Amino acid sequence: MARLKSELDVTCPCCQATLVVDTNLGRVVSHHEPDRGNKPELNDAQRILAAEAARREAIFQQSVDAEKTRGDALSKRFDEALRQAKQEPVTKPMRDFDLD
To answer: Is the residue at 15 inside a domain?
Structure first.
């Protein structure tokens, strides 16, 4: 197909696709996507799905372990704050109209 003078080739900066734009029409006439070499094979699908399932399970176990120790960490922080509160002297709070 012959190229018209009003057609421009433009490369997309995001996906590197080639767009053919007709300036008279003001729209994209055609596009060509770049070849991607990282397409997984269908034979590898089961291995990929098993790896993703193992990754999800590991993340879940990590969150379960973190949740189990969360209560201990919160109780330690509470005990520390309670100990600090007992050590501080009790003072009467200052009110705004006391400053006058």
So the answer is: yes
